[in-house]
Write a structure and sequence with these properties.
Two copies of one chain form a homodimer. With about 300 residues, chain A is of the alpha/beta class. Chain A contains ten helices and 14 strands. The radius of gyration of chain A is 21 Å and the shape is globular. At the A-B interface, β12, α3, α6 and α7 of A face β12, α3, α6 and α7 of B.
């Protein structure tokens, strides 16, 4: 029998709603190659997932069967194959769902998301970042804040996810600054940091005023010529302030770590710091890859 | 000199962002004809306003010069001609801004909007409805709630607008139910009334939870199969509850009247009734026409 060949020992895949990212991995966990494209779940019919993936990773395949570990919306009901939610409290990684493929060169596995039934909530993708975070910080006891389109607040204890909460802050900011009357005022490149911090703290102490504060951004722009960078900071501050108000039972008096995009981590770290909280900071992408590697280790015999 | 002719003694126009509505009026205030089209302000360049209006009202014109009274976004900076905001406290109607026209058959007037400088706010169009309401209820002392895309809460005393506040409830509902992840859950024809009332009251008593409650609509739909009519009611209830929390200084212990679209009036009346408030109900369109008629009376010698 001749030796089997392949460029990647295994392939890590983060397949979300809008994007597909893949890494060619060595057995010991180093990244040999990586790529990203816009073939996200939302643009694909069920039968298109396998050919899309093969087209993208084909240069990394050889004659040996290559294991693939994927996380994200690819495992949702509208994805390639549903990997049913596991219930919290639980560890972030459970049994991998094997997915049948027509191409014999790959053995495909999708990580399941998590659900919470008592206060209904779901996550898909963040559980992998949590696994990555816990691989690095196995004794962490406290709360992860994972800022993004749908920010997750996750209570971790004894290597398990105890409970979590989702706040749509990123999505609210995007639709308000693109589709509402506030778009005329909040289009800007940067944001005014002191206006952001001030608005977060004001909203946190008086969350009941939120609904009226939103339109004041527009009115201040019209009547006082408020700068767009300030208006954008106020919009962001109102939404992050409302988020901190809703998530207070999660962060108050807690040990806290941020896992997200560096730009969002920075913003949330400043907002939390103004409430007297120093959060450790971890980049979300790094945690995703570490989580996929942890899942691969559990798969290996 | 031969007698001058015209079908309308004057013409009332409500020219908003999306629509143009016009009424052919008799001297004594009866409606002889009316029309509505989608030639709203947002689709027109400055030089297109006059020809657009003429095309629409031409059948109502004769040889006499016809006065036209218009309200709404047509008087904004992006409209036909800016009718600068008047400052509260003030009566709803001030001097009409005459607008020069090339067509000699019309004499055009636009009603100015109102601004509030201490707590920045603006309105354009609602001041005309308030004038209509006060024409019918000259001794009203209390608060008008004017539900719509941008709901206004208006404190009225001694025939003057004392102060007002804007809450973007209608716009938030529209963009969340069309552009956010909640669209999958909240697409429905009707709404579940008891879920609406329950959510309004819960949000009003705990407004700090708002940001986390929004995503729970999606999670409940995914995990528990919540009906879309219930999800839609919860979304509406969260936003109206947040609005009532922000507007509490306006309505608490006040004499209150609703001025809006009958469907919204009905929803808000139920939400207010659950807080022990009985609001008188007036249809917004009727108040607009009465307000334009009151402005015409002030114009007439």
């Amino acid at each position: 029998m001749s030796a089997e060949t392949s460029y990647a020992d295994w392939i890590a895949v983060d397949w979300g709603t809008s994007n597909l990212r893949a890494w060619a991995m060595s057995e010991c966990g180093t990244v040999k190659d990586k790529l990203e494209c816009d073939k996200g779940m939302s643009g694909l019919a069920q039968h298109e997932f396998e050919p899309t993936l093969i087209r993208v990773i084909e240069p990394w395949l050889g004659t040996a069967k290559t294991p693939i570990i994927a996380c994200g919306m690819v495992g949702s009901r509208q994805g390639w194959a549903e990997a049913p939610y596991r219930s919290v409290p639980t560890t972030p990684l459970g049994d991998l769902s094997p997915v049948a493929t027509t191409d014999a060169r790959i053995s495909m596995h999708i990580l399941p998301g998590l659900k919470q039934t008592d206060s209904p909530n779901v996550m898909r993708g963040e559980e992998t970042q949590i696994a990555g975070f816990l691989a690095d910080n196995p004794d962490f006891d406290g709360v992860l804040c994972m800022p993004g389109t749908h920010t997750k607040w996750v209570h971790i204890s004894a290597k398990e996810i105890v409970s979590f909460q989702t706040v749509m802050t990123g999505e609210l900011f995007a639709i308000l600054s693109k589709h509402s009357v506030l778009r005329h005022s909040a289009e800007a490149e940067g944001i005014d940091e002191s206006a952001f911090i001030e608005t977060v703290s004001a909203t946190l102490s008086r969350p009941e005023t939120l609904a009226a504060q939103l339109f004041q951004i527009r009115a201040s722009h019209l009547l006082e010529g408020t700068e767009n960078a300030t208006s954008r900071a106020k919009l962001s501050g109102l939404l992050v302030g409302a988020e901190l108000a809703a998530a207070k039972p999660y962060w108050l008096g807690q040990n806290i770590a941020l896992v997200g995009h560096p730009r969002l981590n920075d913003l949330y770290a400043k907002a939390l710091s103004a409430q007297g909280l120093d959060a450790a900071v971890h980049t979300g992408d790094d945690m995703t890859l570490k989580g996929l590697a942890a899942a691969y280790k559990e798969l290996a015999p």
